[in-house]
Amino acid sequence: LKIMNFGIIFNYLDLYKLADLFNLNLLEKAVVDFLVKHLSELLNNHPDEVLALPYCLIQEVLKSDQLTSLNEEQIWLLAVRWLEHNCRYQYMDELLQYVRFGLMDVDTLHSVALSHPLVQTSQTATALINEALVYHQSIYAQPIWQTRRTKPRFQSDTLYIIGGKKREICRVKELRYFNPVDQENVHIAGIANWSELAPMPVGRSHHCVAVMGDFLFVAGGEVEQATGRTCAVRTACRYDPRNNSWAEIAPMKNCREHFVLGAVDEFLYAVGGRNELRQVLPTVERYCPKKNKWTFVLSFDRSLSCHAGCVVDGLLWISGRKLHLS
Fold first, then answer.
1. Are 305 and 259 a contacting pair, CB within 8 Å?
2. How large is the average pLDDT for residues 205-222?
């Protein structure tokens, strides 16, 4: 990042000092955004400049949700190198708060982080890594145990589409996401950029999805059987964007299609729908991630399917339904 004006060249460190001196918040943000976007490149080409960053700037970079050019292990190694440079260990306990240890896998936590001399001399660092290990041990409860140190880093909000029906394929497993194009390249790209991710374990349609704690849940829907017949199912699964993987969770009590699934507080709620016999249901059940278990709660006052639903202000709202006349 260089600006030339009247023969004077400013690099990003000069600009940051200028922003700090005159309290220029927008300029300070621009410098941080530049470093976040180009950190990997700067580490490869100008590592001494990165290690010379002042603490107030390195902490803003490491805590950014948009820092995706490095994985979390690389971010940890950068933090260690910065601390060791000129022996800046007085910042260790605070700086390591911005390393998202929960995004590292268990093997990395043991081999890279927990055994490091810096960690062994810091109770705070040891506690942070032990927190991450406990997080990994409680697989199903992770969505409700999310903190700043387990939140995935993303360049932007992401739109996902999953499953459904195609003309040539009855039920699909596909998971795709919309990758927003940089504004500067919009005129070059010209088309929407949809990319594929790991597919669901089973193709399904007429299912429901919900987001809880940065995890994507898929439940119910129609699945094609070996006989070629399709029917509603109870099965459910969860997508983890951190490692692009799926995990099965406990099945619902009822088979359901054409229903509503919503996340309220620490639970998922499945409302109504049709079962495997095409019977319309009034039942409501709730999923508890801590227990990985569905339980029935108060039923609806009528049977309903093909209805709409959304969560607003901590309440699950239901509207409409398909009338089933005898």
1. yes
2. 96
**Predicted TM-score (pTM) above 0.90:** no
Beta bridge partners of 9: 4
Classify residue 201 by its DSSP letter. Answer: S
The pLDDT of residue 189 is 46
For residue 322, what are the CA distances in angstroms to 242, 257, 296? 38, 13, 23
Give the dihedral of Cα atoms 307, 175, 159, 182; nearest 10 deg: -160
Instruction: Dump the DSSP string for 56-100.
Output: HHHHHHHT-TT--SS-HHHHHHHHHHHHHTTT-GGGHHHHGGGS-
Would you say 252 and 272 are in contact if contact means Cβ atoms under 8 Å apart?
A: no
Is residue 51 a contact partner of residue 81, using CB atoms and an 8 Å limit? yes
Burial of 26 (0-12, 13-18, 19+ CB in 10 A): exposed
Q: Is 110 helix (H, G, I), strand (E, B) or coil?
A: helix
Compute the distance between CA of residue 305 and CA of residue 53 in angstroms, rounded to an integer. 58
Contact 109, 137 (CB under 8 A): no
Query: Which residues is 236 bridged to in the sheet?
Result: 219, 249
The string of pLDDT tens digits covering residues 157-176 is 888 999 998 776 677 899 99
Residue 227: what pLDDT?
A: 79
Residue 74 CB partners (closer than 8 Å, separation 6+): 40
How far apart, in whole angstroms, are the C-alpha atoms of residue 271 and residue 281? 8
